[in-house]
Amino acid sequence: MVRDILRKYGIRGGNHDQHFLVDEHMLDRIVNAADIQPDEVILEIGAGIGNLTERLMVHAKKVIAIERDPALVDVLMNRFGGTEKLEIIHADVLDVDFPKFDKVVSNLPYSISSEITFRLLKHEFSLGILMYQYEFAERMVARANSGDYSRLSVNTHYFADASIIMKVPRGAFSPPPEVLSAVVKLVPRPSTFKVLDEKYFLEFVTAVFGQRRKKMRNSIIRNKQLLGIPDMREFINELPEEMLGKRPENLEPAEFAYLANLLYRHKQGI
Ligand SMILES: C[S@@+](CC[C@H](N)C(=O)[O-])C[C@H]1O[C@@H](n2cnc3c(N)ncnc32)[C@H](O)[C@@H]1O
């Protein structure tokens, strides 16, 4: 029982995003959703006391577990030290380059979900099964014309198919977090629309969502320096009026790409 492990090692959690998943059924469902094959390397970010880790190790060739808290690293070493199937990286995940892995399965530290997710999306892997705060998960999978649609939604849609596969109640954790949680299935794939320059496209999306209440026309003009187009006031009229009249939350990901490509071509003189 996961609660017994917490008790044995005197781990209380509560601080530093430490909410341990004690619902064994949920843990099993997460591992099943990952459909781990015997030749696969799994990355786990924030391994905690190893409740998920031990289940991942049953199926995988190897698990690479990143954990920042030295007390929890000691628990992991004590429980699994010497097991060749597990590599423990004692570090802040934001300070390490991700190793090569096939799938990422994690109950993430919620306060850094955003940084981790943007980094993961640029990494090569075949599947992610990731626990997030429910509101964050909703923003990841949101479609245009909804209040949850954001820079995160467009980025996620650009890199991957994302869906919420489980809603997780507070009581599934010890100690219970203040928020509901959700497990997201992330399947990276090539973009479904053409982007001439990925960095420019992502910067464009970030810039215009920085002013999500403004119409695209105003937002683009305001960001002319960042977009590298000082003569924007003349050029803007060459962009499609129906897109300029919308707010970022009403633009489809492919429409962001269309605009970014036109702006990029002009900037590069191509
Ligand atoms: C929500 S708990 C999940 C623990 C365990 N995997 C589970 O499912 O119960 C998040 C874990 O991430 C760790 N953590 C928090 N911030 C971290 C960081 N910046 N880098 C690495 N680990 C971190 C915490 O110490 C904690 O063990």
What's the topology here?
Layout: H1 2-9, E1 20-21, H2 24-34, E2 41-45, H3 53-59, E3 62-67, H4 70-80, E4 86-90, E5 103-107, H5 113-121, E6 127-133, H6 134-141, H7 151-159, E7 160-168, E8 173-174, E9 181-188, H8 198-209, H9 216-222, H10 232-235, H11 241-244, H12 253-268
Parallel strand pairs: 2-3, 2-5, 3-4, 5-6
Antiparallel strand pairs: 1-8, 6-9, 7-9
Helix pairs in contact: 8-12
Summarize, please.
With 270 residues, the chain is α/β, with parallel strands linked by helices.
Distance separating the two termini? 62 Å
Task: Kindly provide the name of the CATH class of the largest domain.
Answer: Alpha Beta
Give the CA-based shape: elongated
Structural class by secondary-structure content = alpha/beta
Bound chemical compounds: S-adenosylmethionine
Taking the sheet with the most strands, its summary is:
7 strands, mixed
What is the strand content?
A: 15-25%
Mean pLDDT: 96
- Report the uncertain regions: none
Number of helical stretches of at least 4 residues: 12
Radius of gyration: 21 Å
Question: Strand sequence of the main sheet, in spatial order?
Answer: 4-3-2-5-6-9-7
What pattern of helices and strands is seen along the backbone? HEHEHEHEEHEHHEEEHHHHH
CATH superfamily of the largest domain, by name, is Vaccinia Virus protein VP39
The CATH architecture classification of the largest domain is 3-Layer(aba) Sandwich
CATH overall fold name of the largest domain: Rossmann fold
